[in-house]
Specification:
mainly alpha; about 100 residues; globular
Length: about 100
């Protein structure tokens, strides 16, 4: 892993400490030099929503289902209105999943 990849990996640990051998978000962040903090924070929140709603449904709602819920329930708008470069991931998570 390059020094740049290691730095990104450390930044990602702030929002994802899953310690899985393969982590979708970790792969995006570490290998895509164009990622934005905004995109990664939002994808992590959608991932939490996907897990929660899949548990409630008793089946995997898939990413497309989670994204549709994210939009239909106004969460995408809430994220757009709430996100700033200064806000921490943990603060965002509290505002979306209490």
């Amino acid at each position: 892993m390059t020094q740049s990849e290691q730095k990104k990996d450390e930044e990602l640990k702030v929002i994802c400490d899953c310690n899985k051998p393969y982590c979708f978000l970790r792969e995006i962040v570490v290998h895509d030099s164009k990622y934005s903090k905004r995109l990664i924070y939002q994808m992590k929140l959608v991932e939490i929503l996907k897990y929660d709603r899949s548990q409630k449904a008793g089946k995997d709602i898939e990413w497309s289902g989670a994204m549709q819920i994210w939009i239909d329930e106004g969460l995408a708008k809430k994220f757009a209105d709430t996100y700033t470069e200064e806000i921490s991931y943990k603060e965002l998570e509290k505002q979306f999943f209490k």
